[in-house]
Amino acid sequence: MAVLERSYKRYEGALSPEWSRFLIIPQHAFRDVFRSKIFTGLYAMSFVVPLAFAILIYLRHNAEALAILQLNVVNALPINEQFFQVFVEVQGWIGFFLALLVGPQQVSRDLTNNGLPLYLCRPFSRAEYVVGKMSIVIILLSTITWVPGLILFLLQSYLEGWSWFSANIPIASAIFLGSLVWIVLLALLTQTISAWVKWRLAASAGLIGLFFIPSVFAAILNEMLETHWGNILSLGMLIRNVWSGLFGTFVRQAAEVREMRRGVVIRQVLLTEPPLWASWLMLFLICALCLWLLSRKVKAYEVVK
Amino acid sequence: MKTTSESDKTIVFDNVSKFYGEILGVNRVTLEIRSGITSLVGPNGAGKTTLMNLMCGLLRPTRGQISVLGVPTDQPELLFRKLGYCSQFDSFPRGLTGREFIVSFLKISGFTQKQADQLAEKSLTRVDLLSAGDRKIGAYSKGMRQRVRLAQAIAHDPSVLILDEPLNGLDPMVRAETIALFKQLAADGLHLIISSHILHEVDMMSDRVVLLNNGYVVAEGGIKGVREEMDVEHPVQVLIRCDRPSVLASQIFQNSDVVEARVHDDRKGLFVKLRNPDQFYLSLNKVVADGGIEVESIAPVDDDLSAVYEYLIGAQ
Description:
heterodimer; A: mainly alpha; two-stranded antiparallel sheet; disordered N terminus; B: alpha/beta; 6-stranded mixed β-sheet; 38% helix
């Protein structure tokens, strides 16, 4: 066969920046995700809490409404760091259930169908692929955690005044950082489980197990050894301590055990939470482990020995 | 060593080995692939897909160097501007139409929405799938899915196209059309590297073949050239259709180029194994004329890829 010179000209125009290409992955994933009525319903319901918190903030600044409703919200519910921490915690756990529905299928589908070469035969790295897949969870959960959290913070600032805003800037950073740490942790865990457990239901069960089984183990350990250091094994307690640290509500001395005989204290044990740095370190190690596990599994080809 | 301008036009494997732990993928492969259609042929596990993955930079060689039109395979940003890959796996993101599939992967490659739309239109037209472009891939037939995968591989106008089992699942009509498309792409100056198990089609479309077995390249080049190099170990076999094959057999044995002669089961032909076919054909004229034998046809029976494959790989 005669081989001729190329008879067409290749595109030589401008390309989109490399850093932005991972965002193509969530574009189509969202459409797929919102096809599920269960997910869409749960996602819509996740805005009930922000709405309720917004109403509480509004009522606190509306004397007329308070008078009509005969409520004394000002004393009962001060709008401070604890108010916003409760918001972050509630929304964080709602986000956990949303991540359960969305996360476990993302990587496993590509791995099961040998679809990774499709992505990796582009100017697109394994890291960009993982970031793209994680961004599905990160973007979705951002819309129900730190984004409404900061809107609530701004609403409160608007109603309370500039002085409140400037005095409480650390709350805004705690809302953002606390939510982000939780979201990134969830995104990493869901993608790692998705990469290693190809069956979606088993992956979801695995994620639930990862949160609750170590918590039970931690509780048993705490009870047996009369300590709170077991909490270092519980993801729920770890993130709670991190949130408390960020909002400035963390107290190390959590409880006290007293053994009494005939009204006399014969033994007293102070139960202290692990220090904050230990919780951060543990979260960091979990994230590093997830990244290592992902790097082992997210490859263009699996070598069957 | 090749000069820069030469290596810019070829795919070069320089003493490349790939081991998966202790398992051999390919070993000591030295190849130079020019434009046109090159087929990788070999049994399962021979190393065809490993070789393709090495070319695509999906695998790093354990030893040796690979360059694709002058670009080392560890530079994806440059490499994938020049290279398109169509894997053998029937895998698509869920819920996309054919057009969305191509557009989204073009966007991952860095094309703008407008440019991706134009290129997708062009590639869908090329694989004759334009009318079905806006239908969900889930509703496509196997042949259509194969074609849409091909469309995404050629959408960015690559210079090198790597196709893993591209004819699988296609009906004869579509297969013929696809082969015609490959030939057209090769005529446009592309390097097409194709792996296939369908030997007679490989034979029909390939400019050259690379035969692999157990991770080693056992032969490479044009099929005719490879066959000629084997004629000492495997003499060429021809079938002479004639009225008196036994007489012809006794006559031709006087020719030192004839290694073996066997009468066909229907007793209307003679299989002859021989070396130096050109010399034999000259002497055959004389034998036929002197013996008054009526020859109907003379045709080689083992100068195609299937025979080469059988001799080199099938026997092992």
